[in-house]
Amino acid sequence: MTELGFWRNAASDPDRVALIGADGELLTAGQLLARSNQMANGLVTAGLEPGDTMAVVQPNQIEMLELYLAALQVGVRITPINHHLAGPEIAYIVNDSDAKVLVGHERFADVMTSTRAELTGLDTNRLFSVGSLDGFRDYAELTDGQSSDAPAHRTTGMAMHYTSGTTGRPKGVKRTLHEIDPDDMAALLTGFQAMFGIHPGGDGVYLSGSPLYHTAPLMWCGSALHMGHRVVLMDKWEPIRMMELIDAHHVTWSHMVPTQFHRILSAVPADERSRYDVNSLQAMVHAAAPCPPEVKREMIGWWGDAILEYYAATEGGGTIITAAEWSDKPGSVGTPWPGSGVKILDDDHQEVPAGTEGTVYMSLALADFEYKGDAAKTSDNRWNGFFTVGDWGLLDEDGYLYLLDRKSDMIISGGVNIYLVEIEGVIISAPGVDDVAVFGIPNADWGEEIKAVVQKST
User: Fold this and answer.
1) What pTM was estimated for this model as a whole?
2) Sign (positive/negative) of CA torsion 393, 395, 396, 398?
3) Residues of the chain with CATH 3.30.300.30
């Protein structure tokens, strides 16, 4: 039986292939373990202590997972940052997180140079880069001469992602660190994947196509390693490439977003889908945004029961729904998963009856959190052990949650609530449409009116 926790299962089965890089490089579990141990020891040598933060600006490459597995062994909070942000935006997150180390990448040379100029309080001797980058030390300096054995003091670290919500500057979702063996913590966290029928060992193959600076893609990729599954990295997601990788590597599960479903359906016409073997698929889980019903219906018709959905947030959550349940309750995002709960509240924090719209509140999951440095924001989104990210929805008589829109995105025109996400769902399903954004603008007569920006397929 496969042991839970990457460090344990890698030590017990070092020769299995654990990771396939976007460039095709293969790393055995033993090799990835050695490299992540060297990095963990390097972080300690660089002066990081439990509770400190390391910020990283990385593409979907092997180094990102080395850094992640290293931080989680020595009690360090790792803050992955979106490399599409501008330099001052990245610098704000680095500064606000109190990062003691920043690891960039030469691919983002311009933005990293701009970031460096805006940093305050971070020792410039603790700037590192994968590849050559002016003003940054070589990444290898963190690992050169370091032992490939486990660090002397192992304690659980954690990711601290930044979420912008709907207003203001991004805020770090900061959870309490506990003195617990990293493998034991990993075993607890993989219980989430069990709800989707994903279990340790076997022939599990996880395809990591979404950016690892996002919360769920990094957590799910880490959970795959903790369960002894093989991880296949995509540096840049492309629909045809994903189908090729599913076929070639007999992928069993992945974490996706509805936009990827839409682009796969557009890129692979119905009469060409038999070219790709999808029989290995067991759990192709999607989240993060509403899925247009026609898109989801077509994906279920192709990938069957492997299509699963959940609703949650960086802060916690949430709900889950199978393909069969969704077919009976189209448009729903499901019922609360074990240990979680959902309530619909009005503006006075009173629960509303089934079928009545209101603000969606979810129970805090796993561990409580704070928005770093913002006690008011932390307090404002709480109510009796529940929190909200501002979504607007309803629960039906069977307890299934339906999301209507973000409360801040919903517009009122002529006294009528209009849910922009529903309009986006219709437009995205039209032929020749690759992406769409719908929004409201002021109107002297109606109050607000609808506008849309449409990106055509190339």
Assistant:
1) 0.87
2) positive
3) 410-458
The ranges of the chain annotated as CATH 3.40.50.12780 are 21-173
Residues 252-274: pLDDT tens digits?
A: 999 998 889 999 999 999 999 99
Digit-coded pLDDT (tens) for 420-431: 666 776 776 677
For residue 304, give the DSSP letter.
G
pLDDT at 290 over 70: yes
Per DSSP, what are the bridge partners of residue 433? 456
For residue 267, CA distances in Å to 163, 242, 254, 270 come to: 31, 11, 19, 10
- d(Cα 190, Cα 188) in Å, to the nearest integer? 6
- The three-class DSSP label of residue 21 is coil
The answer to whether 54 and 101 have CB atoms below 8 angstroms apart is yes
CA pair distance 183, 83, nearest whole angstrom = 30
* pLDDT exceeds cutoff 80 at 57: yes
Q: Are 20 and 26 in contact (CB under 8 A)?
A: yes
80 vs 51: CA distance, rounded Å: 16
Summarised one tens digit per residue, pLDDT across range 109-160 is 999 999 999 999 899 899 999 999 999 999 999 999 999 999 999 999 999 9
First to last CA, the chain: 48
What size, in residues, is the chain?
458
Cβ–Cβ under 8 Å, residues 83 and 57: yes
What residues have CB less than 8 Å from 350, skipping those under 6 apart?
none
Cβ-contact 170, 93 below 8 angstroms: yes
Determine if residue 5 is left, alpha or beta; phi over 0 gives left, psi from -120 to 50 gives alpha, anything else beta. left
**CATH homologous superfamily of 21-173:** ANL, N-terminal domain (3.40.50.12780)
Residue with tokens 């992406």: 435
Whole-number pLDDT of residue 429? 67
Angle between the N-to-C axes of helices 215-226 and 182-189, in degrees from 0 to 180, rounded to the nearest 10: 110
State the angle between helix axes of 109-118 and 87-96 in degrees (0 to 180), rounded to the nearest 10: 50
Could you count the other beta carbons within 10 Å of the beta carbon of residue 263? Answer: 18
Closest C-alpha among 334, 364, 335, 360 to residue 346: 360
Rounded CA-CA distance 27/29 in Å is 6
Architecture of the CATH domain 410-458: 2-Layer Sandwich (3.30)
Q: Among 4-13, 44-53, 285-294, where is mean pLDDT lowest?
A: 285-294
